[in-house]
Each structure stands twice: as C-alpha cells, then as structure tokens.
C-alpha cells in the first residue's frame, strides 16, 4: 500500500482532511498490507482509534477507492477486500474458501506494454484475478 504521507497528500489535493478516523484506517491499510475486508479494517482500526465506527470505515474506503488510492476485489462470500490502487495486482482466488493468493509475476506486464503501444493508452494499473479451487479445498472435497 501507499504510505500515510501519500494518502494524506491525495486527500488534501482532493479537498479532504486527514481526520483521526481516516488516519487510523490508513495506518491499518499501510501496516497490515492488502486483502483486508471492511470488517477487518474496522476491527484493527479500533485498536488505534477506539471510537471508529463501521459507517466511517465504509465511507472512508469508498472515498479512498474513488480517489484511486485503493480498489476492491470481489470474492465469493461477497465480502470486498481492498488492495492498493497503484500498479498491477495478480491474484488466485479460491471460490470455495475465499483465500486470496497474490502472484509476484504473471506475464501481464508485457501484454500491458503491447496494449499501451498499440492503442496509445497510458495504463496506470491493472487487476487480474483467476478463480478456482485451492489445494486445501480440493483435498477436503
């Protein structure tokens, strides 16, 4: 995830303040990494800022998504999880248990470069998800 400073600058340039609740949410996103659900952000954020409400978490995640700082990934259980809004993200998502496995490299960078050249399109980020059944769920089926 981006740094707290990056989030603060993006919020300020969009006309928003870095309030105490937003700061707690950003700290959670920065410290805990990726693939957190809103419920996990809320639970972890309350450790930093105890009055943090679920509604504030939902609104802040929506704001950060609209600003392009984070983006949701959708899982089978309908619980959105959030990843950084920058760069490429490549995931294997288990349709049975919802586990998310991040791939370090999947070969999309070459395709992105070709598409950018071909269409004159400046690609800023991408998200690639493969859905299937993980090894553990296959063994327990």
Kindly list the characteristics that best describe this protein:
2 domains; flat; Dna Ligase, domain 1; Arc Repressor Mutant, subunit A; three-stranded antiparallel beta sheet; 141 residues; 6 helices; alpha+beta
Could you characterize what this model shows?
The protein has 141 residues and is of the alpha+beta class. It has two domains: 4-73, Arc Repressor Mutant, subunit A, CATH 1.10.10.10; 87-139, Dna Ligase, domain 1 (2-Layer Sandwich). The chain is built from six helices and six strands; from the N terminus they run ααβααββββαβα. The chain has helices at 4-13, 20-32, 38-48, 54-66, 108-119, 135-139; strands spanning 36-37, 70-73, 81-84, 87-94, 100-102, 125-132. The strands form two sheets. The protein has a three-stranded antiparallel β-sheet with strand order 1-3-2. Strands 5-4-6 form a three-stranded mixed β-sheet, with no helix packed on it. A hairpin with a 7-residue loop joins β2 (70-73) and β3. α2 (20-32) packs across α3 and α3 (38-48) packs across α4. The protein is flat. The chain starts with a helix and ends with a helix. The model has no long low-confidence stretch (mean pLDDT 86).
